User: Fold these one by one.
Assistant:
Number 1:
Amino acid sequence: MSATSTTIVNLPDQTTAVIPKKNYISAEHGLLSWLLTGDHKRIAMLYLISITFFFFIGGAFAGLVRLELLTPQPDLVASDTYNKFFTMHGVIMVFLFLVPSVPATLGNFLIPIMLGARDLAFPKINLLSWYLYLAGGTLTLGALVLGGVDTGWTFTTPLSTHYLNTHVVTTAAAIFVAGFSSIFTGLNFIVTIHRMRCPGMTWFRMPLFVWSHYAASILMVLGTPVLAIALTLVGLERLVGIGVFDPSKGGDPLLFQHLFWFYSHPAVYIMILPGMGVISEVISTFSRKRVFGYTAVAFSSVAIALFGFFVWEHHMFIMGVSNYSALVFSLLTMLVAVPSAIKIFNWAFTLQKGSITFETPMLYAFGFMGLFTIGGLTGVFLGSLGMDIQLTETYFIVAHFHFVMVGGMLMAFLAGVHFWWPKMTGRMYPESLSKLAAVVTFIGFNLTFLPQFILGYLGMPRRYHAYPPEYQVLNVLSTAGATVLGVGYLLPILYLAWSLKYGPIAGNNPWQATGLEWQIQSPPLTENFTEIPVMDHEAYDYEWLEHKTQQEVTTVG
Amino acid sequence: MGISEVLWQYLVKWLNNSALFPREASTIAPYMDALYLFLIAITVVGVLLVLLLICGFSLRYRRALHPVAEQIEGSTLLEATWTIIPLGIFLVAFVWGALLYFRIYTPPVNSMNVYVVGKQWMWKAEHPGGQHEINELHIPVGRPIQLTLISQDVFHSYSLPEFRVKREVIPGRYTTVWFQATTPGTYHLFCTQYCGTDHSRMVGEVTALSPEDYKKWTEQSTSGMSLAQNGERIFASMGCNACHTASASNRAPSLAGLYGSKVPMANGSLQLADEAFIRDVILNPSQHVAAGYAPIMPTYKGQISEDGLIALVEYLKQLNTNYRVQQTQTTSVSDQAAPTTPGMVKP
């Protein structure tokens, strides 16, 4: 490896290299060995396949929505159908893709290995969580096949309870069940992180990926039950008319908003925090440096989780809540933005005096940083009370949360999938094609969602099937961008599938990364380690790694 | 705003013409736009800064130029900097936004009140003069207009982007918002809260008229009966006047001068009689029993529409004496003499 090379990729000699015969994939054969597995890595792969499936269903609905909005007239489908499109898009993407995306796949795969453990604390509960996810997914698909649902993913009462005849109860049940899958994942992570760290793995030697999952897990365990309660009450209202949200029975429809957002605001942190963990790992590895201000980044995750529980009312500023309570929630919203700013700057300064290379995961991570900064700062627009009056319920809000969720989370997810692909499968993805995909995604994303900010300030409401003709130009731009974005997402599916058979063999540590997961074979053994490692250095200690590599070389020599 | 007036107008004109920016049609709009431009400025600066850091470091410290990384633990000073500066900027956004919010949601006392009922999928406006409009709203420029909004079914949201105001329209409670139009013209009215099948057709037009045109419009479109008169008719036809009189044998409190007063309740509390209170008493009388009266009032839930309630509320707001209540009663009970002068009536 020459000092001036522009890559850190260090692959074994391809003529002699082989995938280790014994690994978690080859350990057992047959469908049942997968369906009844307790291995966290196999469950992670099951999750990866299922969330990818739902991602493309959700994406198809997004495509249909954008296609309809190409023209101002409601001419592609009927209004009810359009309403079902965006509802299914939201429900599937939020509950079946974004919430489980990083934690259930990458987190599941990596957290035990990063902690030096053989598996999660409760392997069977881990499998159960996948089955619950699948049950939730099946119910959602059931609701879809039976005719869909058109409440919007927010289930606003009394629309969802009294005015719609679609499959609201089925969908609510689906989310209820999928919610338990998320609770179990969170519980499993919390217990594992507390109880199963290997000798020497102190809290402040854990990779930041683990810290951010810890914070997200707390949110999952504490927040999701409230969503379950809110949806149960919606179901009961529809089935037996208990009237909790019905003003004519003395109930309060605003109560639903409080309950729903008490979960659904923290939920955005459930979605974004694990992604932030991925970014910390990727930025450190490709700049060969420990993360700038490890403690600040670790604690900012916890701070986000903590503050995240006390900002829900910012979704209701225009709903006739007390002006003074709005004041408090606006202030808290501003505070929750600060830890995110800290993270962005810490990542930027991780690059300083590093030795930076630009492999695909790094490109996605840069994309994340840029787009998440825009997503975060536009959140300040919405947290600022007066501004929120003009912007809420318009396309501005749509653009804002897509910048955070898609520009942020999905970029982080793709960064992570590319980064750990060699570890998960033992093979490399094709580098130049994947760089192209990263760039296409970035361009497509900006073209899709930047015009929506402008549309929002112009006043175009979200969830509109038809719109005034003067908004057409910006909508056409947005739809064009969505097409590019779609290509950007299809590419990885194709080349990653290709790489399973034809990708170069990766070896243990293609990135020369420091994490424990890179010190074992790829793909790993069923129980990860032949003997439990002892952590004798900090996370991101590149000097330790260099020392270790040198020793290995001298031993072999 | 720290920007010169001429430059501001030029900027706004340019933005309007390029269809990237909504017209400024209310007194609050320039204030909203100033905050918007401030927030855009910090976003642009923030993004440029991050971009600069990423690109700068990427160029300067790329592997080809900088083969060996120098390990840095962190820097408390730097971290404090990028904690405190963003916090400061966010707090400015907080205070600025809060000032604007309180201004938009606190109507001036002299504003002209228009009631709006939202229902799937139309907006019905009720003017005090008795004019009704569907999916339209005619208002004069140069006068503060207060909207009192309520929904008859699901959540809606009344959005006037060119006026930079919006308010959720909620079943079972009144919400208010106000604005003052500056330029005559027609403007968008959107429902921005998803409300079912025809959500995107729950749109309309707000027409701002010069005071003269507005006067002409009110004269041409009146139904001949003001909102309060309509309320009086309902008051009589629902039989409210059977109990709510000023007679000595009254079974219910007198309603003259009720609006805006503090009512002693049977449970010992004092209730401010505002629009929401009056509406709620009509619908849920058993929960609001006035001190000294038996809980005998039946509920009118399901018998009066939101429009009817608005008419009743408007009637009671203007009811200063019981003279007319007595009058309507004497037409049915003929053995009681009408009082000679309104001033003689004991309220």
Number 2:
Amino acid sequence: MPAKPAHGRVHLGARSLAWLEGFGGLVGLALLLEMAPRAGLVSPHYLPPFSAMIVALFEEMKSAVFWIALGATMRAWAIGFIISVATGTVIGILIGSSNILRMLTRSTIEFLRPIPSVALIPLAVLLFGSQIESTLILVVYASFWQVLIQVLYGVQDVDPVARETALSYGLGPWAQIRYVTWPTTLPYLMTGVRLAAAVSLILAVTSEVAIGSQGLGKEISDTQAGGAVAIMYAYVIVAGIIGVILNLLARALERWVLAWHPSMRLHIVEAGE
Amino acid sequence: MSDTGPIRPIRSLTIMLTLPAALVTTWWFISAGSQNFYFPPLQTILQTFLKVWLSPEALQNVIPSINRFFVGYLAAALLGLTVGIPIGASRHVRNLLEPMLEFFRAIPPPVLIPMLILFTGVGDEMKTLVIVFGCIWPVLLNTVAGVRALDEVLAEVVLSYRLSGFARLWYFVLPGASPQIFTGLRQSLSIGIILMVVSEMFAASNGIGFALVQYQRTFAIPEMWAGVIFLGIIGIMLSLIFRAFEAWILGWYHGLRRSQREN
């Protein structure tokens, strides 16, 4: 994001005011969700009062079902995410470092990338049923491209002068990757990591809703089918909170890894596809 | 660097087609005569593809899907823009709403399907609404970010020229925020396709997702593979349409950036 540091620094306490206002917004939303069903604006059968959702959430948290579902979602997310980031980085650096490879693979990548990973659902179901492998196929197929594309952008962004300097200093291929390619690629990779973290969660939950693999998504569709509406909303809230936490963690990782970087470059965000 | 020289079109076309041709050929020959039930020969898949997905009956599944997708996606884009611009323009409204919006965006959109079934049943409205609810957040949040980051000097120029109302929106706010808005629209595109398919996998009577699940449940494997390929083609076509649209609207911006990079 094109941050404007001047903005936040001008008024002292502008940040804490923003926090306060944001918190106020969330409280307002909770109040609205509490009052709307009570005032009869929506049927409590569809939208129970917010307090009922929270009570249901705490009840669920006492049961093993909740923790097993949460664990299953997080496990599928973590495995899929790590596979995507690792393969995307390695293949991206490999392809990106060679002009020939890049030109040869370009059309194939452009063709495969927009294929929606949900197209693979029937195939995954036939091969693996509702096991975790099904989820992983969907997660990896969707997240891999996010990382690969960013790494490809990054490798191409290497300053030609730096590359030639490295060459004339006699750096070998491995040292070139380590000292020239990697530092340039890292900011792009971090954008890919951030996108992949979000996409992996979306696809993990999609697979649980659509295929019925174990996890939060399955609990949501099961509780809806069983008419336990308050519990269903409790799980939706949990899914949202996990999404927010993963997002914050990815941003924190980005800031930490790139702390040395002169600036969080502007065009990285724009290149984010 | 070899990138700088003019590449002859024939050579670049050859390079472009080499790998895909090699992959398809490999698939064709490896799968030829395949006895594996799940991996039929590519020949069979392609014959089935022509028969099933390029027939008039296929339109009964394709048209409703595409229809719901476009209605949902366009509604989300329009809503995201109209709501996002005022939020982005005011710091206090932004502070108030941003955490809430970030939360909504973080909810994995397919979760909305069971939720919306409660409100609207399993009909067309549900499927379109799911797409709207899933696609709106990237557009909305990117519009907010884009409007917030508008060039301050330009804003003062606009002020001193006394542009206001529609003129200010049309000549300053929208163009200034458009690169960010398109980032949001692009993210929404893939979410929209996911939701189009997944929502049809739940109680539906037509649609591409519905047909796919039918084939899978009846173990009509070549039909299912053909459906996977068809969905892939839809995804690619939508992304091509989007790219053409973006190149048309954002042409000035990409040109500007290119000239900046060359300096």
